[in-house]
Specification:
Two copies of one chain form a homodimer. Chain A is of the alpha+beta class. Chain A contains 14 helices and twelve strands. The two termini of chain A are 20 Å apart.
Chain lengths: 336, 336
Amino acid sequence: MTASAPLVEVTRGLSVESRHTGAVAIADVTGKLVFSLGDAERLTFPRSGVKALQGLPLVESGAAARFGLTEAELALACASHGGEPEHVATAAGALARLGLTADALECGAHWPMNDAAARALAASGAGPTTLHNNCSGKHAGFLCLACAMEVEPAGYIDAEHPVQREVTAALEAMTGTRLAEAPRGVDGCGIPTFAMPLAAVATAFARFGAGHGLGEHRAAAARTLREAAWSAPFQIGGSGRFDTEAMQLGAGRVFVKMGAEGVHVGAIPELGYGVAIKIDDGATRAAEAVMAAVLIRLLAPEGDFGEWLAGRVRRPLRNWAGVEVGEVRATELLAG
Amino acid sequence: MTASAPLVEVTRGLSVESRHTGAVAIADVTGKLVFSLGDAERLTFPRSGVKALQGLPLVESGAAARFGLTEAELALACASHGGEPEHVATAAGALARLGLTADALECGAHWPMNDAAARALAASGAGPTTLHNNCSGKHAGFLCLACAMEVEPAGYIDAEHPVQREVTAALEAMTGTRLAEAPRGVDGCGIPTFAMPLAAVATAFARFGAGHGLGEHRAAAARTLREAAWSAPFQIGGSGRFDTEAMQLGAGRVFVKMGAEGVHVGAIPELGYGVAIKIDDGATRAAEAVMAAVLIRLLAPEGDFGEWLAGRVRRPLRNWAGVEVGEVRATELLAG
């Protein structure tokens, strides 16, 4: 098996201008690969792709219920959001339930990822805070878990903090991996990230989506998070974002989430399948095209969802004057 | 020869998280390859990498001198600028010499590529104009040429307009290619872009840098444009940009210019070499690391320039809290 497969082409005129390679793993709840391209066992940092798995302890511990987190707040805990006003308000609201403010967040501040939101923030005369960090919802969830565990919240991003131990244990159980000796890095928001086989990530999302093999308690938590995302898909990403639009149109059918450096994961409950994608070079544009092609291959949805996916499998590129100059397209390898 | 070489790794912790492949061609003024990685003959859209070549007719026709373009305005004609206030003022100044305004530019409007400039513009209550387009200086140059040729400026971006015919003829002569049957696309700013062998682009920049084989008139024009870039390197890119910093520190020794989709080109007059780089996936971060490694390989400069290049061959990645989490680094294939 080759390590990498040609997954996406970027065209200009009638020529291919750029190419993206990578790997795709689609697994069932038992861990059996039902489809793959490239090396499905490659070690991959799943980055923000696994935020929903990192959110399981928040729900199954009873912390979310104890502090009365809303569906929007739970969706934001699984999000890489654009820092739009709705996201900022939701993060602030979750912290307020804990009696905390943005000062408690250890994710760092950055300008909103959504360009229009960044410009509007600048126009207001204000600057970015930790609430605008795309991970602020996940971090508010970590703080909620710390409060419910009655441990000192400060330092909650450290690998040895009780919160991260719970989060890592959930990742291990869901992926069926042992992470103690796994290659480790620091994620963009400061928490540990572990390299794991791509197929193990796919298996975890098969389980997350179908609830099989998790035990009643964890299966209920997974359902709560899925339903939160489907109820409040804007919180997961924001304006124009792939995951938000996919779950607005595919609510109940697909859970999808991007991660940095060309990661995309998905759960398809009705099939009991999980999907994990890694683009070698880290390109989001390519990961999205591949996810769209995978969802068409597996579900062939009709209507608005199907049309939207088709437009993401082959996405037109326009120049600054609005002229169509090429497209980003998944290769035929991904066709059903 | 393999089509692509492993050129850049992106690490997280001790692991390689993402990889970039591509091709490098280094040629002399005769077109002889002196070094290559990957397929040096691959057809490549050089995009904005060839703006300096597209600027030759502006100078050699006498148009720039007739309208009194400054060195800053000539540098901006070769630029992919950040839309910072200095760039906008320079573009407006060049148009004013022609009795024209931003309305004459056909490049389209976009928010400044420089994030801080975009936010400052939004904070001022204004929006982007064609002057903020990263190609506005090149387009002002096209208009200057049209005025000097005494042809109708409107439509100057069309392949059949007298301005584009001059520009294409200069590209053909510099690269030694015939572009009539070359794969063609529309560039981000609306003008034609032609796919050509990477080695031909490298040869063109060897000639551009050394002035050999161009005839006296064109050689003088190339020197004028090189010296404009070295005199006003901020205009070429802007704050924090690779090309600007490289020419601030390496003025007189290197001319470098990025292009969209992972293109980078360079001229090294003292060696008579030209460089052309294409990253398969289109990543700028990778093209910059490769160019830095190539310049160290060829010049091994000491002092500030050498230190700056070393910091670009291995560039630390920091997360939002400022913690170093990995690096972007050129592979050993590029070491001398």
